[in-house]
Amino acid sequence: MTTWISHRGYTERATENTAEAFAAAIDLGFEHLETDLRCSRDGHIVLCHDADLARVAGSSLRVHELTRKELAEYRLAKGQSLLFFDELLADFSSYQWILDIKPEQAERTVTVLQQLSKDPAIERFLLEQSRYLLWQDSHQRTLTEVLSGAFCLARDKACYRAGTAALLGVPQLGGIQKGQYYAVPPRLKGVPILSEAMVARFHSQGAHVIGYLPETSEQHEQALAAGVDEILTNHAPELQKLKSTRSDSF
């Protein structure tokens, strides 16, 4: 069965990466969520994709230049507030997560996670309910050193290399690692690439495929027909519609 993952929450009425966006995704049936981690000037982890607040709050100030108090005072484009990691732990720790640790302050973010992991309950969350995406080898090594057993997803270059090899029918040449998860988009430059044969080639190497950000009903169906293990999506209504359609067919 394919696992559906909400990319930054459902954002029809809420700004991405807010409590309201994640609550809306959960209401629509998601049990697995994805978010982005950055660190404030005074060492608090805040959920924000961009390095600055221009897109979500109309400010050119950078996240790491602001304190938690200053960040908390911002009202975002759709009226919500930024969400901090301790708030995520308080309200959403029963769900599965992908935590994308942004590179600009990654070492500091990892240090905060290490400090939080001294609490056994938080350590369990970080190791058993979270997977990680880091953008530099050194940051990934640091995370796995301080959180032994943390699972890090394949990064963009590894996904491209593995996907190209699988598409060409030579997955053994793609450096595909057993047990790893690789993101593959439904289309590349407008050409459909995600197919049952491609996914089967990943599976032949003991790896898993994430259907990466399908944008239409057709692309969601394409990913499901290909047999992907997970779908990372912005479009929560697709989950409800496709679940309903598939249950009616049995």
Automatic annotation (TrEMBL):
Transmembrane segments: none annotated. GO terms for molecular function: phosphoric diester hydrolase activity. Gene3D superfamilies: Phosphatidylinositol (PI) phosphodiesterase. GO terms for biological process: lipid metabolic process. Pfam families: GDPD. Residues 2-243 form the GP-PDE domain. Signal peptide: none annotated. InterPro entries: GP_PDE_dom (IPR030395), PLC-like_Pdiesterase_TIM-brl (IPR017946). This is GP-PDE domain-containing protein.
